[in-house]
Design brief:
Blueprint lengths: L2 E2 L5 E6 L6 E6 L3 E6 L5 E7 L5 E8 L3 E8 L4 E8 L2 E8 L11 E5 L6 H4 L6 E5 L8 E4 L6 E5 L2 E13 L2 E14 L6 E5 L2 E5 L3 E10 L9 E2 L19 E3 L5 E3 L3 E4 L10 E5 L9 E11 L16 E9 L14 E9 L3 E7 L3 E8 L4 E6 L3 E6 L2 E6 L2 H9 L18 E7 L3 E7 L2 E7 L2 H6 L10 E3 L14 E8 L2 H12 L8 H18 L10 H21 L8 H8 L3 H8 L11 H12 L8 H14 L4 H5 L9 H14 L3 H14 L2 H8 L4 H10 L5 E4 L2 E4 L1 H9 L1 H13 L5 H9 L11 H8 L9 H11 L6 H8 L6 H14 L3 H11 L4 H8 L7 H16 L4 H18 L2 H7 L10 H13 L1
Parallel strand pairs: 1-32, 2-35, 10-11
Antiparallel strand pairs: 2-36, 3-4, 4-5, 5-6, 7-8, 8-9, 9-11, 12-13, 13-14, 14-15, 15-23, 16-17, 17-18, 18-24, 19-23, 20-21, 22-24, 25-26, 26-27, 27-28, 29-30, 30-31, 31-32, 33-34, 34-36, 37-38
Protein name: HPS3 biogenesis of lysosomal organelles complex 2 subunit 1
InterPro entries: HPS3 (IPR017216), HPS3_C (IPR029438), HPS3_N (IPR029437)
Pfam families: HPS3_C (PF14763), HPS3_N (PF14761)
């Protein structure tokens, strides 16, 4: 089904100032080639500037009238099929940029002609025409957009020419071709061919055949590869009704299909079209040998049109569209491209087909046209189709398919992308008089119109709606009799960001109705931006950052839809919010109304909150946000409340409010996990009577099994390290047997690893030992202890010094000899100074011997009464040392930045500014300081 929207992908239009009636045209990266009609033997070249302005570059003569033409970005050459005296010729125009109108120097040579030194010196300053003789007349031609190779279609065969770069001398490299391969295809007269990355698409009037040339390891250069597969020889191909795929070979050797046929992948060999490969290049050690793999065969019957029998039912507009690896195409050199996905489009008069032919061959989309089409052109973002009166714009699914080729795990809880099977939509149907041909490059559509006499008269009437027409360099026309019946337009497509904004605004018309149309339009907007990001020129585009912001914004909008709407794909709220980079607090602000106690919440929002709270993420919700989450789950899914409260994110939730909600749940469905959670909340409130009551309501064995249902009651993770909860610390003091039993049960149920349990029991085994501080661990990781034979003893000593039980004054004489012993001595020295309250001395030692640990130490130790040491000692020392030393400059800069963040959040702005040195040391951080100050105001 095709969705219909009235959006505006087309911007302004201009008229190309052609000197003669165009017959054929094609585009280069920044130029337009126009071949004249009838007996005209020439090509006009126009430079395409900003907003589609055309400036004539010049023109050059051709041998005969141009029947077909194509430009190759790789090699920057123009290839033509020309007719003169009823004979056809294949020619390539090299170095055409050197020409100027009717005065350029031109050399003509045969393909493979050896360059002479005297001749080659002038070659770089003149246009070179390469003639490529063929044994049969050329019918159609296609250039590979990846490497510039050339494919020519002739009756019963295809001829491949490889683009060569011949180095004449250090100042001159010349382009040439080598005829390397001929594909003999019996009883085929190609109407159109497309060529890309060794993939070949061929169409006749009613047949489509897609092939791939695959390299083989070794072969005799004269060997020919013929593929003939009969359906009668393949009885086990898995088809239920082989008769529908049977192709009958008549006496005249033409393939006649009884019914419409579609054969995909390996099955396409059943098409009974034999192909013989003939290698024509000179055999060398580097000679490449190919074999043919069939990808797709499709035959259409003349009566297949949904609009009834059509006498002129013929295929047209076959194209191969490549999409490259995201972020891999950094420069403009063509050989740097790495192909990711490949798509093939072809069309009947009333319906078009888009296939993926890369990793998997499958039909992606079918396009139904409102009237008979003349031609179509496919881009990564749109399909543009011309009919007798309209230029139509359809959306495409190439970026959705390519995203899945690039990342097979994209449809998970972390990432998402709109489906390939999403309904296509028409964005615009723009009226034109007599569209005849179309091509596309960058953000321009080139459109040729040819009107009948009555159409020219009709064009003078103001009631006819068309785009604003900005003609540059066109002659004034006073009446319809003097006006020709043709025009060549350059139509600017609007920028991705502009159309994205329009789609988002349009989607809001469906927002209140909470319909799938809102999700559909936002999905279209997302795919539009995703296609722009996958474009090879994205990394060098001026609007790169704006596109990335739009991508994140579109993810957030889709997350909102799947959270607010009752849809079967509600689970997609989670990955879209994650791709948007939103925190839980930010999502709550988007979806939760202030003071709304009766607001209802859909499954998508609950799914997002449940998954986010059950994962170990480093985000603590504020008291207000945490209490709001409790209220949400109490109404939407109260059975989740015990598990939600165990999340580290809910550390600031009001325990009294939590107990109130838990009591309501207990009245409906009591459980041991709920009892343990209530006991946990009682501990937080300091209500020991309630705690003892809850813990006494079950036996210890039942309580131990309850901990296995929710291990977060006992242990949580911070930066990948297991740490005990307040509940576990309390059990260590009051019920150590229960703590041991619960931990053993956790291990037996694979809820905690043995190594984690070992670490867990070391933060809880003895009062005299403490958890080794992170800054101590960091210092020890910077080097080996002096005596490698006693690492366990060193850890025990450090753990003892990290506890509050040691009498440091009495222990100092014993520890004095160890103070200078490398990293171990540094940790002992600083631990002792900290116990004595000598924080400034500790910072001096760390900045002197291990500056990278200074901020870690400050984060751990400089709290409460020692908080002022941040700005009175650490900040001035870092400023001074940053200015004086070069050895640890990156570490000092990083530490200074972190210190400034803390100080800016702690002090008033006036007090903070008075601390900064006046020598400009901190001037570099002023933007960062402004951000910190703004963040402080918000909090």
């Amino acid at each position: 089904m095709v969705q219909l929207y009235n959006l505006h992908p087309f911007g302004s239009q201009r008229v190309v100032p052609c000197g003669q009636e165009p017959a054929h045209f094609c585009c280069g990266p920044d130029v337009l080639f126009v071949a004249g009609a009838a007996a005209s033997c020439g090509v006009e070249v126009f430079a395409v500037r900003h907003e589609g302005r055309c400036e004539p570059l010049g023109s050059f003569a051709t041998l005969g009238s141009v029947l077909h033409m194509a430009h190759s970005r790789a090699g920057d050459y123009l290839v033509t099929i020309e007719e003169k005296s009823k004979a056809t010729f294949l020619r390539a125009y090299m170095n055409w940029r050197c020409m100027s109108a009717r005065s350029s120097r031109v050399c003509v040579r045969m393909v493979g002609h050896k360059m002479e030194e005297s001749y080659s010196e002038t070659l770089k300053e003149q246009m070179s025409i390469v003639e490529m003789p063929l044994s049969d007349p050329p019918l159609c031609v296609s250039c590979c957009p990846v490497n510039g190779d050339l494919l020519v279609g002739c009756k019963n065969k295809l001829v491949m020419f490889c683009l060569k770069y011949l180095v004449i001398n250090q100042n001159l490299t010349v382009l040439d071709f080598e005829r390397t391969l001929i594909l003999h295809i019996d009883n085929i007269i190609p109407a159109e061919v497309a060529f890309c990355a060794r993939h070949i698409a061929i169409t006749t009037e009613l047949d489509v055949l897609i092939l791939k040339l695959e390299l083989i390891q070794s072969a005799d250069s004269t060997e020919q590869y013929t593929h003939r597969v009969s359906t009668l020889e393949e009885p086990g191909n898995g088809n239920e009704d082989l008769s529908t795929h049977t192709l009958q070979l008549e006496l005249d050797e033409f393939i006649i299909c009884q019914k419409p046929v579609e054969l995909l992948g390996e099955e396409s060999k059943l098409c009974e079209i034999p192909i013989t490969l003939e290698s024509t290049e000179l055999a060398t050690e580097d000679t490449k040998h190919f074999q043919v793999r069939y990808l797709l065969f499709r035959h259409f019957a003349p009566d297949q049109s949904p609009f009834g029998f059509c006498e002129e039912m013929k295929l047209h507009s076959v194209q191969l569209l490549p999409i490259y690896q995201t972020g891999r195409f950094i420069c403009e050199t063509e050989n740097k491209r790495e192909l990711l996905s490949l798509f093939c489009f072809f069309s009947l008069p009333h319906v078009g087909y888009l296939y993926s032919v890369g990793k998997v061959v499958e039909l992606i989309s079918t396009y139904q046209y409102s009237e008979k089409s003349e031609q179509a052109v496919l881009t990564p973002q749109f399909l543009h189709v011309i009919t007798s009166e309209n230029l139509q714009c359809f959306t495409v699914r190439c970026s959705a398919a390519a995203a899945r080729d690039e990342d097979p795990y994209i449809d998970t809880t972390a990432k998402a992308c709109p489906p390939v099977a999403l309904d296509v939509c028409t964005l615009r149907m723009q009226l034109f008089i007599g569209p005849r041909a179309i091509c596309h490059f960058k953000n321009h559509i080139i459109l040729l119109t040819k009107a009948n006499t009555e159409d020219v008269t009709e064009r003078q009437k103001p009631a006819r709606r068309m785009l604003s027409r900005k003609a540059n360099s066109i002659k004034s026309r006073t009446n319809s009799e003097s006006e020709p019946g043709w025009n060549l337009y350059i139509i600017n497509t609007v920028s991705t960001i502009q159309l994205y904004r329009e789609m988002v605004d349009y989607s809001r018309t469906y927002e209140n109705a909470k319909t799938e149309s809102c999700i559909h339009l936002l999905s279209e907007a997302h795919l539009l931006v995703r296609a722009a990001i996958m474009d090879p020129g994205f990394l060098k585009s001026d609007d790169k950052e704006e596109l990335l912001r739009a991508f994140r914004e579109s993810c957030a909008f889709l997350g909102d839809c799947y959270s607010r709407f009752d849809t079967k794909d509600y689970h997609l709220a989670l990955p879209y919010y994650r791709m948007a980079g939103l925190s839980m607090t930010e999502v709550l602000e988007r979806l939760v109304s202030e003071g709304d106690e009766i607001q209802t919440y859909e499954r998508g929002f609950i799914f997002y909150l449940t998954h986010s709270l059950n994962e170990d993420i480093n985000e603590e919700l504020s008291k207000e946000s945490a209490n709001k989450v409790l209220q949400i789950f109490s109404g939407a899914d109260p059975m989740q409340l015990p598990h939600i409260l165990c999340s580290p994110c809910m550390r600031n939730a009001c325990p009294l409010t939590a107990v109130k909600y838990l009591h309501k749940v207990e009245n409906r469905m009591p459980s041991v996990v709920l009892t343990l959670t209530k006991a946990f909340m009682a501990l937080k409130m300091g209500d020991l009577m309630m705690y003892e009551h809850e813990m006494g309501s079950h036996k210890e064995t039942v309580l131990a099994s309850g901990f296995t249902e929710q291990p977060k009651l006992l242990r949580q993770y911070k930066d990948g390290i297991v740490i005990p909860t307040e509940f576990a610390v309390h059990l260590k003091e009051m019920q150590p047997g229960l703590l041991v039993a619960a931990t053993v049960a956790l291990h037996e149920n694979s809820k905690i690893e043995l190594e984690e349990a070992d670490v867990f029991f070391k933060i809880n085994s003895c009062n005299r030992f403490g958890f080794i501080f992170p800054w101590v661990t960091f210092i020890m990781s910077m080097g080996s202890p002096p005596d490698k034979d006693y690492p366990e003893d060193i850890s025990k000593l450090q753990s003892l010094l990290c506890s509050q039980s040691i009498n440091i004054t009495a222990a100092l004489p014993i520890l004095e000899p160890l103070i200078e012993a490398g990293n171990v001595g540094l940790t002992i020295h600083v631990l002792c100074s900290t116990h004595l309250g000598k924080y400034e001395d500790s910072i001096d030692q760390l900045l002197k011997r291990c500056p990278a640990a200074a901020v870690l130490y400050a984060q751990q130790e400089l709290k409460d009464d020692s908080r002022a040491v941040w700005w009175n000692k650490l900040l001035p020392e870092l400023c001074k040392r940053t200015r004086l030393t070069e050895n640890d400059y990156p570490v000092l800069i990083s530490s200074l930045k972190e210190t400034l963040s803390v100080v800016a959040m702690e002090l008033e702005l006036r007090d903070f500014l008075s601390l900064l040195p006046e020598d400009g040391t901190a001037a570099f951080f002023l933007p960062h300081l402004l951000h910190c100050s703004q963040r402080k105001l918000l909090t």
